[in-house]
Amino acid sequence: MPAVLAAAANDQVQHKVVPLPDGGFYMSWYDNRAGGYDPWVQRFDASGTGVWPDGGVRVLDTGFSSTEDYGLTMDNAGNAVIVTRSDIGGGVKIVAQAVSPAGALLWGPTGVQLAASGNAPKAGRSGDGFAVAGWTESNRAKVMRLGADGVPAWATAVTVTDGTATTILSDLKPGDGGSVIASVVRYTTFTGAKTLQAQKYSSEGAAQWPATNVRVFSVGSLQFGNFPSFIPDGEGGAIFAWYTTSPLMARAQWVSPTGALKFGTDGATGADSSGLNRVDPAVTFDPTTRRVFLSWAEQVPNTSLYGESMQAFNETGEKLLGVAGLPLAPLETVYQIIQSRAALVNGHPTFTWTRTAPGFGSDVIWAMSTDSGGTPRWAAPVQVSTTAVTGRPVVTALWTSEPGCAVIWERGASGGSQDIVGARLNDDGTLGPVMIPEDLNGDGVVNGDDLGIFLSAWGPCPTSGACPPDFNGDGVVDGIDLGSLLGAWT
Fold it and tell me: What are the tens digits of pLDDT across the range 206-254?
């Protein structure tokens, strides 16, 4: 069964997740329990248990009756940083707030104001770990680096501009050194092409790539209202996934640290074969093999046949899994397959997708892991969620000695009372926490309670029955086993 992560009266929606070095994670969301969609945040430990009381911390007390996008990141001090809209004191402004690992609001009761107006704010971090905020204001994307106290680090926000066209901020991710990479959607008219551009800014706010920005692609158009995210390559570059219209085709692009297009002018298509609509792509990257992995939902046009496929690319954008890629879920008659997600778990590309069967309320999240050659690592796709109305899944690889990822989604009737639930998906395809032998009482931590159980069993094991504290299986509970327990102490 999934774990309930955020539940109260009315809606808890639009969650975002940032992993923590201790194996836990921060999760933020909009919460309508008290009237008005307020941003909340909670810290979870490695077992998925909320650390702070009262279900988390309300970041702001707003009066919004609807939501827009917002941002969550973590700064180099380990604080959760939320960038969002606020109507406190009148007018709609862009603000940032930090919450300490102990759950304290750090930047005042109403946060730090970044702009007197704006829409769809984002949060990211620079390569040196400082929080970075972004938003769209007066038809131009804006980016601002924040100091440790939340005060803007630059005299003014930099503008990601492209002549007279509108630029709408799409995503923010760390670059190399103290830089940050911003992506924008270039918009001219409703019927005009919507293209994707990117710019990298130094810690001082100076543009590092051409003044006209890097054109992630030039031919074709994004669908209206589509604002693709991207992932950093860890070297100062970025890897993008998107789909174009006419035809509907999933694509990927790798932009080098200098702004060069590694996959060609318009990126690499997920598949060359015609006849299928390929949309909703997700991307992950293995820095060891230097392979980019792309997944997407596909459909036989004008039918109810939907599936999910993947492709792998080398550093020059060459397809490694054939012209059509490899199927993760075969084409079958369902209402649709949507919400592709991807993450690298223990060096293995891991994919999830939502399968929507005919009939309301029958959405199910499925997952599959492959090796670098696209061979499935599990006997069959794993059903992550129970049958329920499912929306906005997030997949986040966890920093932990037991490799796995958190799959988190909304559950409940849309427009009614939605909660946020999640499950741990392990590298071997199992669900739930990975139990370690030293956790003798099974509570998810190795501590004094386990030590007490261990010491009570000191000496030779019984001649019959199990002997759990005998970790090395030599028939005696002794100092060697004690060393194992202390080595797993959490």
Answer: 999 998 899 999 999 999 999 999 999 999 999 999 999 989 999 999 9
Q: Are strands 25-31 and 12-19 parallel, antiparallel or unpaired?
A: antiparallel
Q: Give dist(CA 255, CA 114) in Å, integer.
A: 29
- Of the CATH numbers 3.40.640.10, 2.115.10.20, 3.30.565.10, 3.30.70.260, which one belongs to the domain with range 270-433? 2.115.10.20
| DSSP 8-class letter at 480 | H
For the chain, the structural domain boundaries read 270-433, 448-487
For the whole model, what pTM was predicted? 0.89
Phi, psi dihedrals of residue 357, rounded to the nearest 5°: -80, 160
Q: Which residues pair with 405 in a beta bridge?
A: 397, 425
DSSP annotation string for 117-143: S-EEEEEEE-TTS-EEEEEEETTEEEE
Give the tens place of pLDDT for each residue, 64-101: 999 999 999 999 999 999 999 999 999 999 999 999 99
Q: Which two tokens stand for residue 51?
A: 């650390």
Lookup: tokens for 87: 């109507």
What DSSP line would sit under 330-368, residue for residue? Answer: EEEESSEEEEEEEEEETTEEEEEEEEE-SSTT-EEEEEE
Residue (of 356, 353, 354) closest to 343 by Cα position: 353
In this structure, how many other beta carbons lie within 10 angstroms of the beta carbon of residue 141?
A: 30
State the Cα–Cα distance between residues 227 and 217, nearest whole angstrom: 14
Taking CA atoms, 425 is separated from 429, 434, 460, in Å, by 6, 10, 37
How many helices (H) and strands (E) are present in the chain, helices listed first?
2, 34
Q: For residue 433, with 0-12 CB atoms within 10 Å meaning exposed, 13-18 middle and 19 or more buried, which class applies?
A: middle
**What is the rounded CA–CA span in Å between residue 306 and residue 353?**
12
Contact predicate 321/310, CB 8 Å: yes
